[in-house]
Design brief:
The protein has about 140 residues and is an all-beta fold. About 5% of the residues lie in helices and about 40% in strands. Keywords: Dioxygenase, Iron, Metal-binding, Oxidoreductase.
């Protein structure tokens, strides 16, 4: 919706679709920045050739770059960013996603918000449904 009153707006992409796929879903940001300007978003994307979310992505909206985390045979849930208490940088915290594995396993995956590298995982004694999302 154009904010200048014109009948037509322009479309643009935050990322190169040939590099990062043509869609992302279940995005989240640092909850301290809801309603404010932010730089980073975390989402589920698709590692081609499939068309369902199987990748976690950290998107830098200023640099128009992204970091993708793809583990073959897994489907991530909606990623949530949890800021570190006292953090001064927007991406200083942890990204949490529940993962469904191809063999029926499920686990919580914790990634460093800045580097997007794995910090820890906690295995569940059961699998998780595809498309699990929401805050707990």
């Amino acid at each position: 919706i154009p904010l200048d009153g014109s009948p037509n707006g322009s479309l643009g992409a935050a990322l190169d679709p040939n590099e990062h796929g043509r869609g992302m879903d279940m995005c989240s940001i640092n909850p301290n920045l809801v309603g404010k300007k932010y730089r980073y978003a975390y989402a589920c994307g698709a590692q081609r050739p499939c068309n369902f979310p199987n990748t976690l992505t950290k998107i830098d909206l200023v640099e128009k770059k992204a970091r993708n985390r793809y583990d073959e045979g897994t489907i991530p849930s909606e990623p949530f960013f949890v800021p570190r208490p006292g953090a001064t940088e927007e991406d200083d915290g942890v990204v949490i996603s529940m993962i469904s594995g191809k063999n029926g396993e499920g686990y919580a995956l914790l990634l460093d918000g800045a580097t997007f590298k794995e910090i820890a995982r906690a295995k569940f004694p059961y699998g998780l449904p595809y498309g699990l999302h929401g805050r707990w």
